[in-house]
Amino acid sequence: MFPHHREREQPIFSARAHVFQIDPATKRNWIPASKHAVTVSFFYDANRNVYRIISVGGTKAIINCSITPSMTFTKTSQKFGQWADSRANTVYGLGFATEQQLHQFSDKFKEVKDAARLAREKSQDKELANTALNIAAPQSPPVMCVNGPEDKLFRSQSADITLSSEKERIKKMLSEGSICEMNLEAELFTLQDSNTKLVAALHEANANVEQWKKQLAAYQEETDRLREQVSQVAELEAHGGQGPSDLLKDELTQSLEELEALLKAKDEEIHILQNKKVEYHEMEHDRDEAIHRLRETEMRNAEMERRIQNTEQTLSNSLEDRDRMDSEIQRAIEILDIKIFDLNDLRQSLVKLIDK
Asked: From which residue to which does any coiled coil extend (predicted)?
């Protein structure tokens, strides 16, 4: 009988709101019925054609109101509405978080009230008969109803453990990717700086080589000219002719030695620059190898990013599945709370009947 009772009444709409009741003494002030926002649900009993508004806080029923065609839900502000329950001799008030939630609840209240009016027009006597049948229902323990949510809770905990491990793995991959990217950026910056310095040094060396080549050509011409003059002087002396003075000969010899020394120094500088040019080519080769390694690392980084995106997608799907599972569990718990409350009502009714 209990499973049948569970299938008989189903929630058709739920919203979260702060519940209030009118002060029975003053009939003006509101008394909070809940410390925080609770779930307020519309339930439909297919067998009895009865609509109810039910809200449970813990093990206590805050609202248990059967909707009648004479009830009216009044919006008193942008986020607050109320209706009177003559059977409970009270007025309920609901405070919503947004104006949209208030409009949705008000529209559903009007829809359910119209449905209740149609149901009452069809049958007005079935409620008492069905109440008698419900009182006769045995007190089956609600263990069978709890097994489903417990199994879902177990799967939810397993999903939480799996999600936690997935999060840790993603954090580790992101950390490794960040460190690798930082190393790549540092290596690239060093290569670019070295390349800039090498290019500047090469341009300067090429310019100096051209200049020194021109100077060397001029010095060689001057040396040849001086050597020719010395040769002429030597020929004149050999023939006994009138030659230049010893002073002029010494000056020419000194100039020739200075030019030869300068020529030797320039030859050494040219040799040094040629060695530097060879070193530059070697550094260019090293730079090309470093760029090749950098590209390979970038490809590995792209592959790692693709794997991270796939893992994030998997994690997102797992989170959606867990949220859907949590929603189903919450729905089952709400229904279970309502049914436990109904069982308590049945037990109290049976006790009253036994006492009579």
From this structure: 195-328
| Residue 197: exposure state from Cβ atoms within 10 A (0-12, 13-18, ≥19) | exposed
56-113 pLDDT, tens digit each: 887 788 999 999 999 999 999 999 999 999 888 899 999 999 999 999 999 999 999 9
Domain at 11-126: CATH code: 2.30.29.30
Displacement of CA 87 from its chain's centroid (Å) = 52
- pTM for this entry: 0.36
Q: What are the domain boundaries of the chain? A: 11-126
Contacts of 326 (CB under 8 A, 6+ apart): 156
